[in-house]
Amino acid sequence: MSETRMSENTHSVAIGAFIVGALLIAVTTAIFIFGSGIGSSRERVVMVFDGSVKGLSVGAPVALRGVQIGQVTNIHLILDSDNVDLIMIVEADLDANNIQYRGNGPEELTEELIARGLRAQLNTQSLLTGLLYVQLDFHPDSPLQLPDIDSPHTQIPTIPTELQKLSRQIEDIDFAQVASDLREIAAGLKTVVTNDKFQALPDDMQATFRSVAALSEELRTAVGQSGPRLASVLDEASGTLGALNTELPRVATLVEQNLAVVEDAMRAFEGAMSGVDSLVAADSPTTYELNKALRELALAGRALQLLAKTLEEQPEALLRGKSEDAQ
Question: Which branch of life, at top level (predicted)?
Fold first, then answer.
């Protein structure tokens, strides 16, 4: 009797162990399948951002026109030794359950949307914390730029934030070169004012040339320092609402000062150009430098005016880009 009872107990234990083992296998398989995305309704995408992704973290939302459709799953950096450049790669899972598809499947539709202008942009979740999320929206006029990366996933093109756009415009202004041009202009005008023909000019024109020569010397130092100072303050103003509130007055003041310098220089040089032709040849270095400086100052003026307008109308654009209504 005891042997029969022991046999039954052993059999029960074996069955229990088998069931537990089967459940463990099932759970492990489910975790593998759904966790890796195989057989799930998620689509893995990849995005390459130019610049800092400070404030973006794994788990951050991915939203399409304000509706969350996924989340960031991985953020990593690649050092491109060939171009000596850093590439910021962000991977995300898009949840098809949050989107109703018609026609083609998710992958084909995503590629079609990209062709029609779907772009990714970093945006601010909270002006208080500076945390970022990935905003998807349509920008059909933006260029389709897909960096060459080794990834099997669909790549969504990215566009810069408003702050990055403004910073790049400022960076495109070669303030050091403008300062160098001003030095050349000052030297050239000093030569002009010692010319015999110069003494025959009306007194007001002589005064204009002398003031332009003096202004060139003054502007050379001011303009040479403008670019680095403005870029530094813009960088400090990015991040959180607290930083923006602290730095915005500095940014606005610095922009106004630089814009005033540029506008004064343009007015002075335009006045000088009216009398240069009678004193120097059209292809002389002085004429060339004056024309070149005017072009560069005009470029600087346009960029600074745009920045000043943005600061006045939408200062929060430095944190989260322009509002959709303004686009």
Answer: Bacteria
Taking the mean position of all CA atoms in its chain, how far away is CA 310?
15
Model confidence over 11-69: pLDDT tens digits? Answer: 554 555 555 454 444 444 333 334 444 445 678 999 998 877 888 899 999 998 888 99
3-state class of 45 per DSSP? strand
What is the spatial distance between Cα 92 and Cα 120, in angstroms, rounded to a whole number?
11
Other beta carbons within 10 angstroms of residue 318's beta carbon come to 25
Asked whether 162 and 152 are in contact (CB, 8 A), the reply is no
| Longest CA span, the chain | 136
Alpha carbons 132 and 120: distance in angstroms, whole number: 12
Angle between helices 162-172 and 285-313 (to 10 degrees): 160
Tell me the per-residue pLDDT of 269-322, one tens digit each, with 9 for 90 and over. 666 555 555 555 566 665 666 666 666 666 666 666 666 666 666 655 555 444
CA 21/CA 34 separation, integer angstroms? 20
Q: How far is CA 318 from CA 137, 158, 237, 323, in A?
A: 19, 18, 8, 11
Contact 226, 301 (CB under 8 A): no
